[in-house]
Amino acid sequence: MGFGFNFLLILIVFPLTVILAVLWLITQKAEFGKLLAGMWGLLFLFCFVVGGINYLNSKKKLEKHHYYGDYIIDRNYFKGEQADWQYNSFRFSISREDSIYFHITEGERIIQTITGAITTVEPYNSHRLKIRMNEPGHHILSSNPTTYRQPWSFYLVFYSPRFNNMFFTKGKWKPIN
Questions:
Q1: CB 3.0 to 4.6 Å from 156: which of 27, 55, 145, 171, for a disulfide?
Q2: pLDDT above 70 (res 107)
């Protein structure tokens, strides 16, 4: 926990524990023992709840194997014709053999596939994706993506000189209604 919690423990909880324990031993009254047990029970419950909330809100720690799978345009960030067109025109997959297959499509039909390789680096506590495409490449994959982590998932943002930011998320391509 933080400085405030430690300060509270040292200046309030520990002295109060000593006082209640001494009173309980001297007077032999059960109320002091119950108060002592209740205080520490609430303190442990508080730590458990705060730890659980912290765990649920913490960002996903990514490793190389998390990147394997199929990716589609995430149409939740920007809605409309442009997002629908991108969704129907681009998708890619990353295989367990560290290969990337970037598909240029017309809906379900794949027109062209550009291949490359992936690696990951770990500059901090989570792996980042690095892409090396075979020639000729594609403007969407001209630079490495930015990975945005969320508590239970992540998404990749590629900068395209033609389309600006393109948001890809893991998923299977399905026709748009």
A1: 145
A2: yes
